[in-house]
Specification:
The protein has 2 helices and 6 strands. With 93 residues, the protein is mainly beta. The protein has a 4-stranded mixed β-sheet with strand order 1-4-3-2. A hairpin with a 2-residue loop joins strand 3 (27-42) and strand 4.
Length: 93
């Protein structure tokens, strides 16, 4: 989940997507899914993935929220703050 202002900033016509309603701890919010390519950079290494991202005007946080239905079903993700390490590994088919 990204704030819609981020989508606006990179030229995505947020409201042209199919409107969805998703629920969380604080209730339901409207969002718009869009297919995008994300590029992860680490030193000389880069990895691109195509995925669906939800954009919402109701989501006001400055950070992104990774979704269970899309990202966590396809990738193993590890955050290690002590080592300043982030591992993003695709599950074997």
């Amino acid at each position: 989940m990204f704030n819609a202002e981020f989508g606006d900033a990179i030229g995505i016509p947020v409201e042209r997507g199919t409107k969805k309603s998703i629920s969380g701890v604080k209730g339901a919010i409207d969002c718009y899914p869009h297919e995008v390519t994300i590029k992860f950079l680490s030193g000389k290494h880069a990895k691109e993935i195509k995925t669906k991202i939800m954009f919402s005007r109701d989501y006001k946080h400055p950070f992104v929220l990774l979704g269970r239905d899309i990202i966590f079903k396809l990738y193993e993700i590890t955050f290690n703050d002590n080592e300043k390490k982030f591992v993003f590994k695709k599950f074997a088919p």
